[in-house]
Amino acid sequence: MRRWGRVLGLVMLSGGMGALALSGTGAAASATVDVPAKVTSMAAAVKVGQDIYMRDTFGGMRTCNTCHINGGRTPGKLPSGATIPSLVGAAAVFPRFIPGMGRVITLEQQLQKCIKGGLGGTPPAVGSVAMNDLAAYVTSLSKGQVMGSQFGSK
Prior knowledge:
The chain is α+β, with helices and mostly antiparallel strands.
C-alpha cells in the first residue's frame, strides 16, 4: 500500500485499506488514508475514493466532506458560509472551459484546485492511484446524469 498525504506525528488507529491516521488534537487533526496500489474492481476504487473524500486532509485542516457535505450528495457550505452545489452531476460537466484561466480543465485538475485552495492541502498528482480513486468516487456521483452540456447544442 502507498500512503497518500503529508501527516506529522502519526498515531495509527488501524491497518489495511482505508486506514485512518490522526495527528494533533481536536478539529486541527490531520488525517491520511492508505491507498492500495491495486484494486480489484471499479466498486473497490470508488470505495477507496470515498474513504479519501471523507477522511483525507491532504496535509491540510479539512476533508472534501467538510464543505461538500453528505459525501457530496447535498448542497454544502464553504468556510465563509457561502452555499455550494452538491457534487451530483459535477463530473458530467468536465472537461470544462474556465474563462478566468483561459483554458480547459479536467475533473482531476479541479479536484487538485479544491484540495490546494479549499483544503489547504497538497493534492495527489493527476494520474496517481489516489487521484484516480478520488475521481472515480466523484464521478460515481454523476451516474445517470446528462453528459456534455458544457459543449452547447449544435
